[in-house]
Structures are given as C-alpha cells and as structure tokens.
C-alpha cells in the first residue's frame, strides 16, 4: 500500500481525504497533517503567509511519522500566489525535508491537464476575482487557455467548506463554457471527492477539483495512477 502524505492548511474540507481512503478500502493511505494558518482569508497577503516555508517545514516534520512515499502541499491558493517558480520551490523544500517526492495542488492542476491532453478550460473559483486571476495566470504559464472564469468572492476557507453539493454543482455549471474542454474547481477547502461523477454529469465533460488532482498527483509522483471508480475522467485516463 502506498502512502501519500498531505499537508493541509487549517480546517475546512480535510475530511475529504480520510473519507476517500475509506472508500478505496486499503488501496492508498492518505494521512493528513494540518499546517498552521495565520489569517483564514482569500487575500494575497494572507495566502503568501499561509504558504511560507516555515509553515510547510513544521508540517513536514510532523508528517514524517507517517512515513509517506510522496507528499502533497494540499493548497491551491497557497501555492499559485507564489507563481510557478515559487510553487516549485515550495515542493522542493518539502521533498528535501522528507526525502520523498513532493508537489502541490496548483502544479497538479497543470500536470493533470497535460496528462489528459486538454488546454482550453473554464474555472469555477470560490475566491474573490483578484485571487482567482492569480490562478488563471498560473494555468496560462503552464500552457492552458482559460476561456471562462467564475469567481464567487468567498473570503474564508471555513465558509467554502460549508458549501453543499448542489451549490458546488451550480458553481461548476455557471462557470462552464462551450469552448472549455474541462472545468477546474481550485479550492481544497471545498468538499468534492464524493461528487466528481455528479459534477462531470452536470456539464458533460471532465471536471478537475482541487482535492481530486491533489490525490492524483501524489500517486502520479510514484508511477502510473490506478483507475478508481467515482473519481472522474482523470482517474480513468491511463497513459
């Protein structure tokens, strides 16, 4: 059994991961360590503080006890605000601290699109528009074209974690665009791992969510990703 360790900031939808681990019935271990948070706010200054190296290093030190085979910084906004180079530096720091491969949710989105061979995307963001635009720039730097973006102005991760499935479905449908090959949902604070198939059915195309791509990338760091039911197109695309 492989172990993908998760560094997760604060409390909102971290329970998505143990729930998925239980569904996968021993196929993958997904231990979660909660990293420290200064201010729970989707503001660039707060997000730069959230993702600073000291917070990740403290989390990595705690995660070592779980003996992970790979590690993910399970935070989209706390990685994309640093830009591609900064996000890679975050991952490198965690990898060096634990001696295993590491990545982050923002990098996972870019890599998942490349894995699926998709370039044109719509973004269904919970964040305020100025923060969501940082994600758009990150995707663009990774070779994607964002043809539509919906931002919902939710300030705290805690509030995002309370969104009901029908609200998430509505956000995805509202952000979709006829030219988009996939819809991206970039917030690990949002509960999505139990509704991926529902989201894809709502728009008739692949939907990539933050918690989904985080798990996928953690497994991808270790080799071919197994096909798991209920986790959408990404987990059925063997390449």
UniProtKB/TrEMBL annotation:
Alphabetized InterPro entries for the sequence: Iso_Racemase_Enz_sf (IPR053714), MaiA/AMDase (IPR026286)
Tagged with keyword Isomerase: yes
Keywords: Isomerase
One Gene Ontology term of the molecular function aspect: isomerase activity
Annotated source species: Kribbella italica
This protein's name: Maleate cis-trans isomerase
Gene3D superfamilies attached to this UniProt entry: 3.40.50.12500
Top-level taxon in the UniProt lineage: Bacteria
Name of a matching Pfam family: Amdase
Top-level taxonomy: Bacteria, Bacillati, Actinomycetota, Actinomycetes, Propionibacteriales
